[in-house]
Amino acid sequence: MAPLDFAPSERDSFLFGANATFIAELYAKFQKDPSSVDPSWQSFFAELGDDAAELLAELRGASWSSNDAGVIGTSDAEPAVRPARPAPAAAPAPAGSAASGLSVDQVRRATQDSIRALMMIRTYRVRGHLQAKLDPLHLEKREDHPELDYRSYGFTDADLDRPIYIGHVLGMETATLRQIVEVVQATYCGHVGVEFMHIQDPEQKAWIQERIEGIRNQTDFTVNGKKAMLQRLTAAEGFERFLQMKYTGTKRFGLEGGEVLVPALEQVMKRGGQLGLKEIVLGMAHRGRLNVLTNVMGKPFKAVFSEFQGNAAHPEDVQGSGDVKYHLGTSSDRDFDGNTIHLSLSPNPSHLEAVNPVVCGRVRAKQCQRAGQIPPTEESRREVMGVLLHGDAAFAGQGLVPETLLLSELKGYRTGGVIHFIINNQIGFTTAPQYGRGGPYPTEVAKSIQAPIFHVNGDDPEAVVHIARIATEFRQKFLKDVVVDIVCYRRQGHNEGDEPAFTQPLMYKAIRNHPTTRELYGRQLVAEGIISQPEVDGMVQEFQQRLEQEFEAATTFRPNKADWLEGKWAGLSPATGEDRRGDTAVPLDVLKEVGLAISRVPQGVNVNPKIVRQLKAKQEMIESGHGIDWATAEALAFGTLLVEGMPVRLSGQDVGRGTFSQRHSVLVDQETEAKYIPLNHIRPDQAHYDVHDSPLSEAGVLGFEYGYSLAEPHALILWEAQFGDFVNGAQAIIDQFISSGESKWLRMSGLVMLLPHGYEGQGPEHSSARLERFLQLSGEDNWQVCNLTTPANYFHALRRQVRRDFRKPLVIATPKSLLRHKLCVSPLSQLSGSETFHRVLGDETPDLAEAGKVRRVVLCSGKVYYDLLAEREARGVKDIAIVRIEQLYPFPAKSLGAQLAKYPGADVVWCQEEPANMGAWFFLDRRIEGVLTEIGHKAGRPKYAGRPEAASPATGLLKRHNQEQAKLLDEALSV
């Protein structure tokens, strides 16, 4: 057969099947010595640069080389790994031989055309989104990107209709340049822009590429499906218009401009249900929340209208301050094609993105519950999913976004991926995108976890729903985060009383003249013959009538129940009364069983010799029943709960070992670094101890643990700060959720916060857990704040968290130097029998003067007690009693009064290490005065002994610290 008898497609197919080895050998020679190949090949391979191997492999059908990450080439725009395709045929003869009849020039030219076409295709995969038509307002001016111009690859207009072999890429073996350009522009530059080439996992990239480029590129919407989309848009738009009409100017943070979110969320539920999804936990800011509550979650419209009229969101017999309506959560069940999806929308404050880690923590807990084990299984991860809705400015600007993304890939916090929807209003309050972020998108941070990112025009409902479907399929298949950036607009201002034209006149002029998404989609369906205009108008009128009926019913609507103590919370009740110790003591035989189990050196584990000595010391404590130190008491609290069937979860920075090398609840083999957890080897049928060293994050991790505690009331959930000083990095989580969540949203939490605290001369960042801030937030019996002095009290404080019929957060100022203090120990007997937690500890020193002869009572809490004790002993003082307030809030007025009444002739001093404007002084002084007045004590008011007011929590100079410490002790003990 003569060379010219080949049809173009037959020739190129033969060329790149039979002659792939020849081209590969040429390229290999070029890599070793460029001068060893013909100059024409030299210039060709040099032009390709680092892309040559990948692109040649594309034609050959297999990779010739790869790096450790499975990615070929080193360019910043790394190529995708394509779906597998049949292996090429064996070469019958080298190119240019008599058998093939093809010259080397012909081989080179055909190869050059094909590889240049593939380079262009790959560039569209990387940068095509930069020319996608994403802005429904058409305000964004996108310049033509030079790398997306076929002329940049050496082609001219004369090449547009010449067939080029591309080896089944884009679903075509051979295509003209014109066809290739049309396909890549339609795929990557339409109403959807895709960013996925940053993903290093070959399978994930191949899946996305096939899903976007393949024959399944478009979801085939049925007539009923399109009508359903229009109906959901009608409901979303109609609800907002109705509220605007009835409550003009009232804040509601409406969804106008982003109504397409409603059918997108329903697609997640529908497709997710088909793929095994059973439950979704949603978190979102306030914009569009009322629409999601009603049109997605199914909250009755009349309930929302009732709240607008000022009625309570909860039954009148339920206490609490409540919150504005656009912060509230709810739960419901939705049925899609026989698959029931349970939805729960987390309540959250106006602090944008703060709810993100809370949602993830809830999801993790629910997954463990469904799996019946810790950690959750892949199946349970597919059954429960988090969905987070973001604003564009917040996603780019709020630090909790990367903190939460970071958790998604970590063992102790993994949830199997979150679907992130960004309601991209193209503005943040009044700040335009160019002033609020760098780059064209708010989504760059998502690349840090290699999440695929889909940008989609919010005025194209079918494109949005299609991408929502792909996102759901990706998450369910790969159990990884995925981001959907819905580019839309905000029809109102930041709120409905705002005038946006003050700062964005051109944008809002365009918005005023821009048809709504519903109007545009209605016109499209009318043009397609799917529906008539009267039917479109009828949808609007019918929904309006429904809302009018719901509005009339709202005047008499009353919520009939609160759901806060249902499901996992059934059997628990609101806290009542003052004496709420709980049943926390443990039989001695159980204490010894647990203690000996956790102090045993495990066989087959090469334990560090220093830790072996610590374990032996613990064993001696248990066997003797004396000298139980802080860490041992904690381990006994954990272990006894575990054998009682209560799981324990502890996370934070370095918690396995403990910041101060005190805990060692995870033993590391010194040869293999395999981990052994003694607390999980007490009994075969015990609950699980889940301990995780967290990333260097406070807000994200604390939010996660808080969310976990919201979903799991029957486990002890603890977060420990590396030093208590660093807790202010999570202040928003503390202020907006932990301290106020029960009052605002009727959501209990038993979360424990362990905050190392104490003045030992370590400077201003390693001394204070900022107790004053927690005490300032104390009110309405919202939590417990403790500064404990004995291991026994610590033991009971931990156990009572899950041994009572209610849950309250617990803040504990934990010790540092006291961890190894010879006096900071308890007998085993104080953990057993009838022992319990003591909110106040009186002075039981044997040689203390008779109560009537005591001249002063020094009140204190925490580590300073031992300093006072040592100084009193050194001075030989017998007539000063030291009384410890172990629980600062709720304030133990009754117990303190009983102690102070013992010493009717004494004056009263409050002693603390912290400066006067910090610590507990400002919180306690009037309360102590109230107690003294109540019992008729002569002291009247307490005096203050401590550091003077200061801007910084502590000095950084050890000499000055020692002087300050000596002075405050002298003030406390000098009568």
UniProtKB/TrEMBL annotation:
<dbReference type="GO" id="GO:0006099">
    <property type="term" value="P:tricarboxylic acid cycle"/>
</dbReference>
<dbReference type="Pfam" id="PF00676">
    <property type="entry name" value="E1_dh"/>
</dbReference>
<keyword id="KW-0560">Oxidoreductase</keyword>
<dbReference type="InterPro" id="IPR032106">
    <property type="entry name" value="2-oxogl_dehyd_N"/>
</dbReference>
<dbReference type="GO" id="GO:0006096">
    <property type="term" value="P:glycolytic process"/>
</dbReference>
<dbReference type="GO" id="GO:0004591">
    <property type="term" value="F:oxoglutarate dehydrogenase (succinyl-transferring) activity"/>
</dbReference>
<feature type="region of interest" description="Disordered">
    <location>
        <begin position="76"/>
        <end position="102"/>
    </location>
</feature>
<comment type="subunit">
    <text>Homodimer. Part of the 2-oxoglutarate dehydrogenase (OGDH) complex composed of E1 (2-oxoglutarate dehydrogenase), E2 (dihydrolipoamide succinyltransferase) and E3 (dihydrolipoamide dehydrogenase); the complex contains multiple copies of the three enzymatic components (E1, E2 and E3).</text>
</comment>
<comment type="similarity">
    <text>Belongs to the alpha-ketoglutarate dehydrogenase family.</text>
</comment>
<dbReference type="Pfam" id="PF02779">
    <property type="entry name" value="Transket_pyr"/>
</dbReference>
<keyword id="KW-0786">Thiamine pyrophosphate</keyword>
<protein>
    <recommendedName>
        <fullName>2-oxoglutarate dehydrogenase E1 component</fullName>
        <ecNumber>1.2.4.2</ecNumber>
    </recommendedName>
</protein>
<feature type="domain" description="Transketolase-like pyrimidine-binding">
    <location>
        <begin position="628"/>
        <end position="821"/>
    </location>
</feature>
<dbReference type="InterPro" id="IPR031717">
    <property type="entry name" value="ODO-1/KGD_C"/>
</dbReference>
<comment type="function">
    <text>E1 component of the 2-oxoglutarate dehydrogenase (OGDH) complex which catalyzes the decarboxylation of 2-oxoglutarate, the first step in the conversion of 2-oxoglutarate to succinyl-CoA and CO(2).</text>
</comment>
<dbReference type="GO" id="GO:0005829">
    <property type="term" value="C:cytosol"/>
</dbReference>
<dbReference type="Pfam" id="PF16870">
    <property type="entry name" value="OxoGdeHyase_C"/>
</dbReference>
<dbReference type="InterPro" id="IPR042179">
    <property type="entry name" value="KGD_C_sf"/>
</dbReference>
<dbReference type="GO" id="GO:0045252">
    <property type="term" value="C:oxoglutarate dehydrogenase complex"/>
</dbReference>
<keyword id="KW-0324">Glycolysis</keyword>
<dbReference type="InterPro" id="IPR005475">
    <property type="entry name" value="Transketolase-like_Pyr-bd"/>
</dbReference>
<dbReference type="Pfam" id="PF16078">
    <property type="entry name" value="2-oxogl_dehyd_N"/>
</dbReference>
<dbReference type="GO" id="GO:0030976">
    <property type="term" value="F:thiamine pyrophosphate binding"/>
</dbReference>
<dbReference type="InterPro" id="IPR001017">
    <property type="entry name" value="DH_E1"/>
</dbReference>
<dbReference type="InterPro" id="IPR011603">
    <property type="entry name" value="2oxoglutarate_DH_E1"/>
</dbReference>
<dbReference type="InterPro" id="IPR029061">
    <property type="entry name" value="THDP-binding"/>
</dbReference>
<feature type="compositionally biased region" description="Low complexity">
    <location>
        <begin position="92"/>
        <end position="101"/>
    </location>
</feature>
